[in-house]
Structure formats: structure tokens, C-alpha cells
Amino acid sequence: MKGKQAEPVHGLGPKLAPGLLTATLALLSVVPVGIPDYTSVTPNFVLMSVYHWSIYRPEHLPYAAVFLIGLLFDLLTTAPGSVIGSTPLLLLILRATVIGQSRFFVGRGFPLIWWGFALAVAVYDLLIWLVDSALSGSLLEPRSLTFQAVLTIALFPLLTLLFARVQRATASAA
Amino acid sequence: MPVKSRSAPVSYFMAPLRSAAQRFAFSVFIVISVAVIVLGRADAALVEKMRMATADFVSPVLSVLVQPVAAVTNVVDRVRQAVLIYEENDRLRSENATLLQWQQAARQLESENTELRSLTNYYPEATTWFITGEVIGTAGGAYSRNLLINRGSADGVAKGQAVASGTGLVGRIVEVGARASRVLLLTDLNSKIPVSLEPGHERAILAGDNTDRPQLIYLPAHAKPRLGDKLVTSGDGGVLPPGLVVGEVASIEGNAVRIDPSTDLSRVEYLRVIDFGLGGVLPQNAVPLPKQSKKAQTEASGVP
After folding, report:
1. Which candidate, A125, A130, A121, A126, places its Cα nearest to that of A155?
2. pLDDT grade, residue A91 (50/70/90)?
3. Percent of residues, chain A, with pLDDT higher than 90
4. Residue B278: which H helix or E strand, with range?
5. Paired residues of A19 in beta bridges
6. Quick one: closest CA in A to B25, which residue?
7. pLDDT value of position B114
8. What percentage of chain B's residues is helix, strand, coil (to nearest 5)?
9. Which residues of B touch A72 (CB under 8 A)?
10. Do B145 and A38 touch (CB under 8 A)?
11. Between B86 and A173, where is the model more confident?
12. Which of B68, B204, B209, B270 has the most C-beta neighbours closer than 10 Å?
């Protein structure tokens, strides 16, 4: 199974897998876990998933799915007074950027993909910080967001294992 | 190597037509996202409806997802309790002794109270009502402090009701769906709660700023807060009742007085939503009204 080029994927299940997984991760990021201060530093699982599938199977996580999942995430996490729509916007840009750089990722090893992810998280969180600061009218304290970014980057390899597993399972199911 | 790019990105080989369609989809959804942002700023009520519809829709899923996590947390707690059982026992014994004294004091006060009420022809305040809910969601962001609970208007939950844990006020209901509601924690940037600083009854506002310790603002200049001073709700504004425990003064730096909430907000599992039958200053038509009792409705409309 290794070394095959662009494995064909048939059936509805495998095609929906990336979207369903990403949506589940969006839900899981709001489940209370009882770890002190976890809420404010919950890793951005959705970002990881969108990044991964945009590299490996972009056709199964189309813009429409990215938009809907981003909107779901915003609707779940925001309270009155905070902005909604910024997550789908940023995720759409992420998908487009990753696809635009696909030449760069093809056949490269994981370290490079991880490095690309770190870069994506940095830019993503910087934008989030700017937007939220602008909306609240003051420079927000960047500490928890920085910590969240570090945690997101650190946990990416672990989630990649999960994504790769799903990817393999759905490919061989064809 | 966990991942190898086995399937080369399809976009690389994509037919020009497909790629054009993709670019079109990208532009369309970017425009929609921007529209959502603008609309969200302009029409808060619509966004609120969307938010609570989403919460209603996913609340059964979240309720299921919470279970295994809660189970693990419980096991960890059990182990910790087993380790500390002797220490805990000693602490409880001394606490019990203190509580018994308090119980006696409370009984005396109760009988005295009844007697005085009968003297003054006092009629009791609107009866309070409460319902317990489970926390099924926490906002997964750095700049928002709120919770989702699995109780909604179908259970009698309404906007503005107080939300408390066993140890004190946690926040208030800001959005209500049929089966789920959103609780704005008192640490959220948008939370402003009228409070009273205990020994001197100085009125102030407890303002959240997304940190774990909300700040006390508009404290009168003559107030002299000290570390450990208790903070309770003042009842001003008519949304929350007076006397609910909120927390205590944790730090004083110049004019900045910060409060330690009496409840560890990062670890709440079950919460009580309490309706004190207060109309309050919240616009009543801002959210779909829950099935209120006739009494509560007449009271609400009775407030000018």
C-alpha cells in the first residue's frame, strides 16, 4: 500500500471522513475536561485537521465544509459581544494557502510539514489576537493565546498519527 | 514516519476547470464569512438565535461526549480522595463542630426572624425556583469565558437567571435555547455584576477581564478593601438577588482590587440555575420567552 500514488477513494464514508473528523474535533474542543485553566489554552484541533486534510486530501474537505465547521466552532464558543465569522474566514484562507503551496509539501517528510504548521499557527493566532483586540478596544493579554499556540504546535504530531490512521483506514476501505 | 504524502495533492494535477471552480468556491465562502462577521456585528439577536439553535442541535452529542471525560475525572478524584482520606476526615470533623454551632445560631435567628416578621406584617419575597444542569461545553478560546449547560427554555431557564455552584455565584444566563443555555461566567470580559463588599456594604461592580480574577470597579473612594473581604451580590439592577456569595478580595494593587471567585470556574460540572422571580432591567423580548409561571410573568411585567 505504500508508495502508491494518489490512492483512489471510493464510497461515501471515506469521502466524508475528513469532514466528520474535523467536525467532531470542533465539538471535542468545547467538552469540559476538568483540568484547571484548560479552557483558555485548549489546543486548536480544528486548525490541525484542516491543515492536514488540505495537504493530503483537499477534495474531501472542500471550502464549503471548512466554512461550515468554522462557523459551527464560532457558534459554539462565542458569547454575546464577541465576533463570529472570523474562524471560518481564517480557515478558508488557511486551506487556500496550503493548497497554493502544495508543490512545496509533495513528497516531503513530516518535519517540514510540522514546520509549515507552526508557521500557520503563528499567523493564525496573531490574526485572532489582532481581531479580538480591535473588537475589545484594548490590547488583550497575549499570554494564554501564546500558550495555546505552543500547545497546538506541540500536539500536532500526535493528532497527525490519528489523521494518518483515518486516512489509511478510509483508503484501504475502498 | 507517521505520514507520507502517499496521495499527492489533487490540486496539483487538477484540471483547469476544477481549479476555476475551486477558486470560485473560495471567493464565495470568503464573501459569506465576511458577511457573517458584518451581520454578526449588526444583528446581535439573529446571531443569538443561530448560536442557541446550534447549541440545541449539538447538545445531545455533547452530553454523550461529556460522559467518558466525567468518568475519568471522577476516577482521578476518587484516587485523590482516598489518599487524603484521614486528613479530610480531621478537617471535616472540626468543620462539623463549627457548623453545629452555626446551625444553632441559624435556628435562633430563624425563630427570631419569624417572630419579627409577624410583628411587621412582612410578606415574603417571590419564591425562588431552581434547576440543576450539567456543563456540556466550555468556550474553547483564549478570549471568552462561558459555559454551555444542558438545560433550556423547555426546563424553565430564562435569560438573566443566576447560575451558581454549591459554593457561590458562577455567572448568569445570557442565551437560552430549547435544550441548552449559555452561561456568561463572571470572569468574562462582558460580565459586569453589581456587588457589595461585605463588612462595609460598599457597592461596586465586579468586571470580568478574561483573567481568573475579575476586577472590582467603581468602588467608592472611602472604601477600604482588605485581603479576604467577602463579596456578595448587591441586588442592584434587579437581575440578581442580593446576598449571593461571589468571592473574596485576593489582591490589592493601588486602585486595582481583584477578586478570587468562590468557585473554581475551570472545574465546574453541575450548576444550579436559579430564578428569583426578579424582572430585572434586561429587555424581556430580547430572547424567546421560556414557559414562565403566570406569577413570574405578572411580576416581570409589573416592573417599570
Report:
1. A121
2. very high
3. 48
4. none
5. none
6. A63
7. 79
8. 40, 25, 35
9. 54, 58
10. no
11. B86
12. B204
Separation in Å, CA of B211 to nearest CA in chain A:
9
Mean of pLDDT values over A14-23: 91
- Which pLDDT belongs to residue A161? 94
Q: Give the 3-state secondary structure of residue B28.
A: helix
**Residue that wins the pLDDT comparison between B249 and A41:** B249
* CB environment B81-107: b (16+ within 10 A), e (fewer): eeeeeeeeeeeeeeeeeeeeeeeeeee
- The CA-atom distances, in angstroms, between A45 and each of A19, A25, B11 are 13, 6, 24
Cell numbers at A35, concatenated: 483540568
Q: Which residue would you say has higher pLDDT here, A135 or A78? A: A78
Q: Is B161 helix (H, G, I), strand (E, B) or coil?
A: coil
Report angle CA B57, B63, B64 to the nearest 5 degrees.
110
What is the Cα–Cα distance from A25 to B65, expressed in whole angstroms? 11
What are the two backbone dihedrals, phi and then psi, of residue A19, each rounded to the nearest 5 degrees? Answer: -65, -45
Residue B178 C-beta-side C-alpha neighbours within 13 Å: 7
Low-confidence ranges of chain B (pLDDT < 50): 1-6, 8, 281, 283-304
Q: Which three cell numbers stand for residue B236?
A: 442592584
The pLDDT value given to residue A83: 78
Per residue in B152-169, pLDDT tens?
Answer: 999 989 888 889 988 889
Quick one: pLDDT band at residue A5, thresholds 50, 70, 90? very low
Predicted pLDDT of residue A2? 38
Residue of A29, A69, A75 to mutate when probing chain B, most B C-beta within 10 A = A75
Q: Does B78 touch chain A (CB under 8 A)?
A: no
* Average pLDDT value over all residues in chain A: 85
Q: Which chain B residues are Cβ-neighbours of A27 within 8 angstroms?
A: 58, 61-62, 65
Round to whole Å and give the CA distance between B208 and B185: 8
A102 in contact with B at a CB cutoff of 8 Å? yes
SS (H, E, C) chain A: CCCCCCCCCCCHHHHHHHHHHHHHHHHHCCCCCCCCCHHHHCCCHHHHHHHHHHHHCHHHCCHHHHHHHHHHHHHHHCCCCCCCCHHHHHHHHHHHHHHHCHHHHCCCCHHHHHHHHHHHHHHHHHHHHHHHHHHHCCCCCCHHHHHHHHHHHHHHHHHHHHHHHHHHHHHHCC
Residue A145 and residue A102 in contact, taking contact as beta carbons nearer than 8 Å: no
- Identify the weakest region by mean pLDDT among A120-124, A160-164, B124-128: B124-128
Instruction: Find the helix or strand (DSSP H, E) in which B163 lies.
Output: strand B162-164
C-alpha cell at B141: 478560546
d(CA B143, CA A136): 10
